UniProtKB/TrEMBL annotation:
<keyword id="KW-0444">Lipid biosynthesis</keyword>
<dbReference type="GO" id="GO:0005506">
    <property type="term" value="F:iron ion binding"/>
</dbReference>
<dbReference type="InterPro" id="IPR030686">
    <property type="entry name" value="Cytochrome_CYP8B1"/>
</dbReference>
<dbReference type="GO" id="GO:0020037">
    <property type="term" value="F:heme binding"/>
</dbReference>
<keyword id="KW-0349">Heme</keyword>
<dbReference type="InterPro" id="IPR002403">
    <property type="entry name" value="Cyt_P450_E_grp-IV"/>
</dbReference>
<keyword id="KW-0812">Transmembrane</keyword>
<dbReference type="GO" id="GO:0008397">
    <property type="term" value="F:sterol 12-alpha-hydroxylase activity"/>
</dbReference>
<feature type="binding site">
    <location>
        <position position="286"/>
    </location>
    <ligand>
        <name>substrate</name>
    </ligand>
</feature>
<dbReference type="InterPro" id="IPR001128">
    <property type="entry name" value="Cyt_P450"/>
</dbReference>
<protein>
    <submittedName>
        <fullName>Cytochrome P450 family 8 subfamily B member 1</fullName>
    </submittedName>
</protein>
<dbReference type="Pfam" id="PF00067">
    <property type="entry name" value="p450"/>
</dbReference>
<keyword id="KW-1133">Transmembrane helix</keyword>
<keyword id="KW-0472">Membrane</keyword>
<keyword id="KW-0479">Metal-binding</keyword>
<dbReference type="InterPro" id="IPR024204">
    <property type="entry name" value="Cyt_P450_CYP7A1-type"/>
</dbReference>
<keyword id="KW-0256">Endoplasmic reticulum</keyword>
Length: 497
């Protein structure tokens, strides 16, 4: 009989010893950024980072300045906090900073999708063709019709719709945006009622995955949660399976284009299902939460709601009475654009990551040069270093619906830091090679949703004095943040005037 206790104990000592040694061996080399390994071997600062990412980074910035390297779970991350120094990282003319390497590992783990050569470029070219410009016009109409279908139901407005309904605002927004977005991109069958029921069920499962997602990425799930994640992955692969969805109508050109590429590359159908899951996640994980923050800010700021309703009345005119107004109106809404930009400034908190290939020198805006080490990861967190910088955005924590408007009502694009005009004055979509290719569609669908809600519904918070909830600390760094708890609200369909 093997004495397992001492064997496992010895193994643990060897592993911990090895990890401590690796950590101890790493020393700051000449010209490298300040190195902060933290006090816990291997884990480094992982606990403080996960507990409250912005707070941790603020402390590190106060201690080390605008660039520093920290250890997080055995990996070294170099954070660059000065937005005037972002240019060389995002442009990366020397091609030393790699987005794809990190992303490929992540999507394999999270969605089970194994990348094929050229797919990253293909996603961007399919998106340029179908999620921007002319390609977007048809999709906007589909999205408008899907939103009205989801909000009003297949039979259109019913008498009970003009009675007050109560719901959680976060749940309501996420649910509506998810169902409308999913149906518009992945298509309908001939049975719309069934489609809506299936979309509802899919949303329930999506939220289960969404809740586990941050700890899944950090590999911090308990055994039961691991099993649950596996079950959810299989469920999504099956529900989005290319074989089972052959008979669907109106699969968006975007999805169809990308699947055709994968077929031409000889990618197996089972892997195409996993690709679909990845695209469902990318396309539906942020629009609902962002729309929640937008409606909540509007409900907490009556002056903003009033300005927006005035603009909507002017832009939509008589057509605003109908749910099927002309989507070209979306191009004439500077106030709504400013509301959305301000919402994204406050609500979007992605981390941009690049793996360093070969040692590489980064020149900061100050002229200082820093040597980045091959294998480390360069990280940007624009929420803290751009969105919340009081020099760029005075009173950064406040929601100001007209922050992105000039006095003449046009879009404001001139922002300054230390007296210098700044190019990246908000970065909700990331930037450079990994910039969100769905950003134009995302904006249109969220704008359509907000327009429909404020023009057709009376909306109010159940408790008008309820404070804006804090961000769920788990969500920092993963795109749009989510609230730590929901906010109750009421809505009813307005009767035509
Ligand atoms: C409010 C809504 C959205 C926000 C805030 C958002 C934000 C982002 C960000 C920050 C990234 C870059 C991630 C990185 O650098 O690692 C990204 C990537 C991506 N987004 Fe979005 N997104 C939104 C909606 C959408 C929509 C509606 C679609 C598609 C219909 C979409 C498709 C994608 C795809 C495919 C990628 C991966 C791009 C790549 O691999 O280079 N997103 N998004």
């Amino acid at each position: 009989m093997v004495p397992w206790g001492p064997v496992l104990g010895a193994l643990l000592v060897v592993i911990v010893g090895y990890l401590c040694l690796v950590g101890l061996l790493r020393q700051r080399r000449p010209q490298e950024p300040p190195l902060d390994k933290g006090s816990v071997p291997w884990l480094g600062h992982a606990m403080a980072f996960r507990k409250n990412m912005p707070e941790f980074l603020k402390q590190m910035r106060a201690k080390h300045g605008d660039i520093f390297t920290v250890q997080l779970g055995g990996q070294y991350f170099t954070f660059v906090m000065d937005p005037l120094s972002f240019g060389p990282i995002l442009k990366d003319v020397k091609r030393k900073l790699d987005f794809v390497e990190y992303a490929e590992k992540l999507v394999l783990k999270v969605f089970g999708y194994q990348s094929v050569p050229g797919d990253h470029r293909m996603i961007h070219s399919a998106s340029t063709k179908h999620l921007m410009g002319h390609g977007l016009e048809d999709l906007n109409k589909t999205m408008r019709d899907s939103l009205s279908l989801v909000i009003l139901g297949p039979a259109g407005p019913r008498p009970e719709a003009s009675r007050w309904h109560e719901d959680g605002l976060f749940h309501f927004c996420y649910n509506v945006l998810f169902k409308a977005g999913y149906l518009s991109l992945f298509g309908y069958t001939k049975d719309t009622e069934q489609d809506l029921l299936r979309a509802e069920e899919l949303f329930t499962q999506f939220r289960k995955f969404d809740r586990l997602f941050p700890r899944f990425v950090y590999s911090l799930l308990g055994p039961r949660e691991w099993l649950e994640v596996g079950r959810l992955q299989r469920l999504f692969h099956k529900t989005l399976s290319v074989r089972e969805n052959l008979e669907k109508d109106g699969v968006s050109n975007w999805i169809a284009h990308m699947l055709q590429f994968l077929r031409e590359q000889g990618v197996a159908p089972a892997m195409q299902d996993k690709f679909n899951f990845m695209m469902l996640w990318a396309s539906q994980g942020n629009t609902g939460p962002t729309s929640f923050w937008a409606l909540l800010f509007l409900l907490k700021h009556p002056e903003a709601m009033q300005a927006l309703r005035k603009e909507a009345a002017q832009v939509l005119g008589e057509a605003g009475q109908s749910f099927t107004f002309d989507v070209s109106a979306l191009q004439r809404t500077p106030v709504l654009d400013s509301v959305m930009e301000e919402t994204l400034r406050l609500g979007a908190a992605p981390t941009l990551l690049r793996v360093v290939h070969d040692d590489h020198v980064l020149t900061m805006a100050s002229g200082e040069e820093y040597r980045l080490r091959s294998g480390d990861i360069v990280a940007l967190f624009p929420y803290l270093s751009v969105h919340m910088d009081p020099d760029i955005h005075p009173e950064p924590a406040a929601f100001k619906y007209d922050r992105f408007l000039n006095p003449d009502g046009s879009r404001k694009v001139d922002f300054y830091k230390a007296g210098k005009k700044i190019h990246h004055y908000t970065m909700p979509w990331g930037s450079g090679v990994s910039m969100c290719p769905g950003r134009f569609l995302a904006l249109s669908e969220m704008k359509l949703f907000v327009l429909l809600m404020i023009t057709h519904f009376d909306l109010e918070l159940v408790d008008p004095d309820v404070p804006v909830p804090p961000v769920d600390p788990q969500r920092w760094g993963f795109g749009t943040t989510q609230p730590s708890h929901d906010v109750r609200f009421r809505y009813r369909l307005r009767s035509p005037e």
